[in-house]
Amino acid sequence: MAIAFIQKVEGRKGLIYKAHYTDPITGKRRAKSHKRRKHAQAFLESPKVRGDYQKKIISVEQAADHWLHVCENIGRKGREPAAKSTLRKYRSHAKYISNLEIDHEGESLRFGDILLPKLTKAHCEAFRNKLIKVLSWQYARKHLTSLKGILDQARADEYIEHRPAEYVFIRPPAREAKYDIADDHKVPDLSEIRRLLEGMRERVYVSNKQLRRRRRRYKLVLETIALGGTRPGEALGLSWDEVYFDRGGIRITQDVEEDGSIGALKTKSAYRFIPMPDYYMRQLRWWKKLCPPSKNNLVFPNWSGNVEFLSNLNRRGWKPLLEDLNLVDEKGEVKYPPKSMRHARASLEIESGANLKEIKRLMGHSSIKVTFGDAARRSGSQHL
Predict the structure, then answer these.
(1) pTM score of the predicted model
(2) Alpha helices in the chain (DSSP H)
(3) Closest CA to 64 of 156, 151, 155
(4) Do the beta carbons of residue 204 and residue 211 sit within 8 Å?
(5) Residue 50 to residue 30: CA distance in whole angstroms
(6) Is pLDDT of 383 > 50?
């Protein structure tokens, strides 16, 4: 190993002292400038230069596990812990990132096995290139964003000092002829929205009493999503305390997670009052007489009075509706997720001439950029 030494240099801003040393992890020669010699000397005697690290050296995979732990139990950058639906996506991203095989300098590497101090921009570029090759650019960019989050958390907790992915990006295709809508962002056009709303009403008229009661309840939930522009979890988390018959609307204050737990909304703007049509409010009055009592005074609990799972809404209420209306793809899978009905209200508002700020408040978007992106998706798929 080369000898560490201090070099006295006259710079443009005055005299500086450069501490030259060999990085104990990478073996590369480095230099760090100081205004005083004693500071340069103290740096050369520090654990960083001597290799006596207090923090253990971890791999990308271990950093991903650490990132997930922080997101779930502590919260990143002063925020609250991530919602369970967000954590599910993060876990999927972390697993994919760790297991991805990249080509680097003529050899194949498992990305999760690379030690953080040895992770370079070249590694991250190879990672980016592999993502672009095997995923659509939207999902590739999401995974790259998660990697940057993993590295940012590792840097905040002093597992890494450099930022190897800082200048690694994924741009949308410049010559793309049509806006490419990801599967979870597909939006039904206005004619399909009308078919769905009409289909909800028609499916209620069956002779089986138990089936009729179930379909009426799911119809009301789906109409809350469609007519109110709510997220599915917001509709299932609606409380009778937040139904205002005198004002003709509902207030969104809580959310149901995928595991059935009730939690706070993700952003401040998600807390909002939504005016609803008169006929919807009349249906709620009728439903209140039949609604099972529940611990949380929910508007749409299951028949036992517990929180209704999002998976039940999808499997028992949404999927059969789309299958009856033949809104399926060539594989027989339903064309849209339940949250796509949330955009029915926004589409109708756009058609009636509402501006983006009004739609932003109605939908509970965190920023006008999200509203603008949703409007672009709708215009790309509906030519509105």
Answers:
(1) 0.62
(2) 37-44, 47-50, 60-73, 84-99, 121-134, 137-156, 190-202, 209-228, 232-236, 278-290, 310-312, 319-324, 342-351, 356-363, 368-382
(3) 151
(4) no
(5) 13
(6) no
